[in-house]
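Example 3.2
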Amino acid sequence: MSIQRMKEYVLGDMTVRYVTDEEKKSVGLLLFPSDLPLNDLPCRNEKIDSLIQLKLCGDIYDEAYAMGSSMRNAETVRRLVYKRQEHEAKEQTEEIRTYLASGDGRYQAVHHLLWKKGTPYVRIFCSDDQTNRRRGKRREKQGK
């Protein structure tokens, strides 16, 4: 399976590169210094590690079951497919939201990457799509 460059953003001295597989199902993230010459994608045949890791009760664990101590790459994650990505640049901040959903529409999740201009780091967190919608409604009410 071939890894392909999906989108790239320069945030200060950092580059955020989103990668995907050829079916555009899995989405991964590379974060590296902008002055590092990484034009080629390393390990093109490597499997992408999903941006979002979660496991719903009842879904099976990954084939590499770790005695219940790891829920990484569970069936729940393998069902996630890329839906869309939004980039919001404001005066002092930038936010990149990547939306993934199960193929059957049972659940959706959002990966957030936030950068405050001038800082040497990014903040990353995930939310379910319902939480994201509620936050958007709160911002609208607050006039933000």
